[in-house]
C-alpha cells in the first residue's frame, strides 16, 4: 500500500485490498472464530488517520471478543487495539499528524466530551465511549483507520513490535496499578503475569515497590524474577508477606478472595480485566474487614496513555514479545488461551 497525500483516501480497487481477520461466529478458539477476509483499504473520515499497520498486539480482550465472553457490537468486526502504524492518509480536519508519521491506535477511540464523566476527567466512564476492535474495525489487518484525537505519537527509535503492547497492555496495567493505591515503597501482589502484568510490574519496581507475582505459569514466574520481582509463586499460594495492594490480571473470579485474604489492613485489590468469571461468595470478616477495598478498572483515559508512555520511556521499560505473522492470528489467540505466550503476542503483517 503506497503512501498518499494528506486528506486523500487510499485507492480501494485492484491491488489495494487489505488482508484482515474478522470475528465470524464467536466461540472457543478451537472452533475457528477468526475468519480471513480481504477488504478494500478503508478511507479516513475528516478527523481520522489511515494507518499502514506495522504491528498489532494481541490482547486478552481480543480473545474474549472472539470467544463471545465480550458480546460483539457489530458483525464481522476486525479485532486488535494495540496498533502501531505509519500514517498514509489523513482526514481534512487532522492537524496533529502528517503523512509518514508513526502513530498508535489504542482501545479507547471516542467519547462524547460533554457528559459529567468527560467533564470531570473520567472519560473512560463515558456512556457513549467507543472502542477499537469492538465498535469499529481494529488492527488484525494490513490497514486500519483510527481517530486522530485518540491516537498517540510514537517514537521512531523503537521497533513496532516492541511498541504495540504498550498501547493497551501497558496503559491498562498502568491504570490498574494506580487504582490499586499502592503506597510508595509498598508491597504489591500481581495475580497473573501476561502482557499487561509484566509491564505494570516494571513501573511498580521503578517506583520502589516490592513485587510478589502469583501465577500458574512456571515460565511467567521465571520472567517475573528476571525482571526483579521479590518472589514468584503459584496463583493460589500466599505471598511471603502481607500486601499493601494487589492487581488481578487473570480473568479468574476464584482468585478474588485469594487476593483479598493476602492483603494487609487497608489494602486495595484492583481487578484489571474487562471480563471476569464469577466471584465466589465473600466472607466479610476474612476478605473485606479492616477497610480492605475491592475496585474495578474500566478502560482508560487518554491522560493515562500519555502518562504511561512517558513513564515507559523514562524507565526504559522492557517489553517481552512473542511475534506472529498476521497470517497466524488464530494460532496467537490459541496460544494466549492456553497460557503459552511469553510476555505479549504481537501480529506482524508481511
Through-space gap between termini = 12 Å
User: How many DSSP helices?
Assistant: 10
CATH class of the largest domain: Alpha Beta
Helix proportion of residues, in percent? 10-25%
Kindly name the structural category: alpha/beta
Which regions have little confidence, pLDDT < 50, spanning 5+ residues?
1-14
Shape: globular
- Beta-strand segment tally: 17
Compute the average pLDDT.
94
Radius of gyration: 20 Å
CATH topology of the largest domain: Quinone Oxidoreductase, Chain A, domain 1
Structurally, how many domains make up the residues?
A: 2
Give the full name of the CATH homologous superfamily of the largest domain. Answer: Medium-chain alcohol dehydrogenases, catalytic domain
Query: Which strand-content bin applies to the residues?
Result: 25-35%
Query: How is the biggest beta sheet arranged?
Result: 7 strands, mixed
**What is the second-level CATH architecture of the largest domain?**
Alpha-Beta Complex
**Elements, N to C (H/E):** EEEHEEEHEEEHHEHEHEEHEHEHEHE
Structural summary, described in words:
Residues 32-347 form the Enoyl reductase (ER) domain. InterPro entries: ADH-like_C, ADH-like_N, ADH_Zn_CS, ADH_Zn_typ-2, ER, GroES-like_sf, NAD(P)-bd_dom_sf. Its cofactor is Zn(2+). This protein is of the alpha/beta class and 350 residues long. The protein folds into two domains: 17-165 and 320-348, Medium-chain alcohol dehydrogenases, catalytic domain (Quinone Oxidoreductase, Chain A, domain 1), CATH 3.90.180; 171-296, Rossmann fold, CATH 3.40.50. It is 24% helix and 26% strand. The chain has helices at residues 60-67, 116-119, 160-163, 169-179, 195-206, 218-227, 255-262, 284-288, 302-315, 329-337; strands at 17-23, 34-40, 48-58, 83-90, 102-105, 108-110, 130-131, 143-147, 151-153, 187-191, 210-214, 231-233, 243-248, 263-271, 293-296, 321-325, 344-348. Strands 3, 4, 5, 8, 9, 16 and 17 form a seven-stranded mixed β-sheet that branches. The protein has a six-stranded parallel β-sheet with strand order 12-11-10-13-14-15, with helices on both faces. The protein has a two-stranded antiparallel sheet with strand order 1-2. Helix 4 (169-179) crosses helix 9. It is globular and about 60 Å long.
Amino acid at each position: 500500500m503506497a503512501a498518499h497525500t494528506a486528506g486523500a483516501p487510499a485507492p480501494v480497487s485492484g491491488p489495494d485490498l487489505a488482508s484482515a481477520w474478522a470475528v465470524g461466529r464467536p466461540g472457543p478458539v478451537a472452533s475457528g472464530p477468526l475468519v480471513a477476509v480481504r477488504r478494500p483499504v478503508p478511507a479516513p473520515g475528516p478527523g481520522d488517520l489511515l494507518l499502514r499497520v506495522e504491528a498489532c498486539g494481541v490482547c486478552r480482550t481480543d480473545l474474549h471478543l472472539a470467544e463471545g465472553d465480550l458480546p460483539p457490537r457489530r458483525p464481522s468486526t476486525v479485532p486488535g487495539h494495540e496498533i502501531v502504524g505509519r500514517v498514509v492518509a489523513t482526514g481534512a480536519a487532522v492537524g496533529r499528524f502528517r503523512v509518514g508519521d508513526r502513530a498508535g491506535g489504542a482501545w479507547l477511540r471516542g467519547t462524547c466530551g460533554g457528559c459529567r464523566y468527560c467533564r470531570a476527567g473520567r472519560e473512560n466512564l463515558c456512556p457513549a465511549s467507543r472502542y477499537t476492535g469492538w465498535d469499529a474495525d481494529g488492527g488484525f489487518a494490513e490497514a486500519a483507520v483510527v481517530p486522530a484525537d485518540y491516537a498517540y505519537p510514537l517514537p521512531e527509535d523503537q521497533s513496532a513490535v516492541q511498541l504495540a503492547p504498550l498501547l493497551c497492555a501497558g496503559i491498562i496495567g498502568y491504570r490498574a496499578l494506580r487504582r490499586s493505591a499502592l503506597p510508595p515503597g509498598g508491597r504489591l501482589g500481581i495475580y497473573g503475569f501476561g502482557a499487561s502484568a509484566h509491564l505494570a510490574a516494571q513501573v511498580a519496581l521503578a517506583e520502589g515497590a516490592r513485587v510478589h507475582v502469583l501465577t500458574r505459569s512456571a515460565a511467567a514466574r521465571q520472567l517475573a524474577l528476571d525482571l526483579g520481582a521479590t518472589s514468584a509463586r503459584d496463583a493460589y499460594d500466599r505471598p511471603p508477606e502481607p500486601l499493601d495492594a494487589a492487581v488481578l490480571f487473570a480473568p479468574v473470579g476464584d482468585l478474588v478472595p485469594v487476593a483479598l485474604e493476602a492483603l494487609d489492613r487497608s489494602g486495595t485489590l484492583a481487578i484489571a480485566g474487562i471480563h471476569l468469571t464469577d466471584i465466589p461468595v465473600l466472607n466479610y470478616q476474612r476478605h473485606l474487614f479492616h477497610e480492605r477495598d475491592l475496585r474495578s478498572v474500566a478502560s482508560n483515559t487518554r491522560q493515562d496513555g500519555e502518562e504511561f508512555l512517558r513513564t515507559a520511556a523514562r524507565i526504559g521499560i522492557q517489553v517481552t514479545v512473542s511475534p506472529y505473522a498476521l497470517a497466524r492470528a488464530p494460532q496467537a489467540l490459541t496460544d494466549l488461551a492456553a497460557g503459552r505466550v511469553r510476555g505479549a503476542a504481537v501480529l506482524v503483517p508481511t
